[in-house]
UniProtKB/TrEMBL annotation:
Segments crossing the lipid bilayer: none
Gene encoding the protein: ftsY
Matching CDD domains: FtsY (cd17874)
Broad class of enzyme this protein falls into: hydrolase
This enzyme's EC code(s): 3.6.5.4
The protein's name: Signal recognition particle receptor FtsY
PANTHER family documented for this protein: SIGNAL RECOGNITION PARTICLE RECEPTOR SUBUNIT ALPHA
Residue span(s) of domain SRP54-type proteins GTP-binding: 303-316
Native organism: Allorhodopirellula heiligendammensis
């Protein structure tokens, strides 16, 4: 078992995107980050919806509503959320001639309402370190998301320990070690193939010893259909709870936004099996399917806590429904 502490001094961002609890701080800056990250999706939506209108406006009839529905579906928001938007536009404007700006405002409000959530911030334990377990399928961006989350917490003044629990993938351990070096935080690693539960235990133990605020533990990528790996997750949870009763305090499920509806089908059942408490939506900037946030929120009944908006360590933002809804449809 190895304990590392980097001597690299982390660079601090000029301003932060969230308070220590993970709640959005500057809505203007958040809107800017979401706006940049949603360029591809907004370009598709903007072109498609604008094509429905003429300079003199458009009559809201069944033909218009069906065309609007088809445009919304292209963002992978799914039939449920798209139907709700269609119905709200129909309720307000059916039989009227309306202009683009009116409809966009209504759609934005409806998306904002659909994404409303009560518990968006990252949990914080009352005493001792807050333990965050991170799960997801292979290729979802899980390990990179851990690096971004760790940097986010470090940049707002929290001390933390990383646990390289994906012990069957050397590249994941190496990547996480590099992230730890850049950030300047502790990392616990082990030999290839070592029991991931032991890494989790040692990570929590190290965080307690150091008095760290957070410990973030990586896990091997898996599908929810792999019962043996799901049992391994349950073992990890039990081991963590044994060392620190009540932990883990967060179990974050990382989903790949570029996979669209496939991300949902891959992860069905995952949240229940792993006891997930929230979602990190990775690679949002690389997708024209940003509307997938809506069915994810609808189907999993879990708050979206963070979104990945680029490749850099600072390219993660605490999720804010208001800023997201506005950035999805407005420049």
């Amino acid at each position: 078992m190895a304990f590392w502490r980097s001597k690299i001094t982390p660079s601090q961002p000029e301003s932060n995107d969230a308070t220590p609890s993970g709640e959005p701080a500057g809505t203007g800056r958040l809107f800017s980050k979401f706006s940049n990250g949603l360029q591809k999706t907004r370009r598709v939506l903007g072109t498609d919806i604008r094509d429905l209108f003429k300079s003199e406006g458009r009559l809201v009839d069944e033909e218009f509503l069906n065309e609007l529905f088809a445009r919304l579906i292209r963002t992978d928001m799914g039939t449920g959320p798209a139907n709700k938007i269609r119905d709200e536009v129909a309720r307000q404007y059916r039989g009227r001639v309306v202009h683009l700006e009116e409809v966009i405002a209504t759609i934005t409000d409806e998306v904002r309402e659909q994404l409303r959530q009560d518990h968006g911030g990252l949990a914080k334990s009352d005493s001792g370190p807050t333990v965050v377990l991170v799960v997801g399928v292979n290729g979802s961006g899980k390990t990179t998301s851990i690096g971004k989350l760790a940097n986010h917490l470090n940049s707002i003044g929290h001390s933390l320990v990383l646990g390289a629990g994906d012990t069957f993938r050397a590249a994941a351990v190496e990547q996480l070690t590099i992230w730890a070096g850049r950030i300047g935080c502790e990392i616990v690693t082990g030999k290839s193939g070592v029991d991931p539960a032991s890494i989790a235990y040692q990570s929590v133990d190290k965080a307690i010893e150091l008095g760290s605020d957070y410990v973030i533990i990586d896990t091997a990528g898996r599908l929810q259909t792999q019962s043996n790996l799901m049992q391994e997750l349950q073992k990890i949870r039990k081991v963590i709870d044994k060392r620190l009763p009540g932990a883990p305090h967060e179990v974050l499920l990382v989903l790949d936004a570029t996979a669209g509806q496939n991300a949902i089908s891959q992860a069905k059942g995952f949240s229940a099996a792993a006891g997930c408490t929230g979602i990190v939506l990775a690679k949002l900037d690389g997708s024209a399917k940003g509307g997938v946030v809506l069915p994810i929120h609808e189907q999993f009944q879990l708050p979206v806590k963070f979104v990945g908006l680029g490749e850099g360590l600072t390219d993660m933002a605490a999720f804010d429904p208001d800023s997201f809804a506005e950035a999805l449809f407005q420049n």
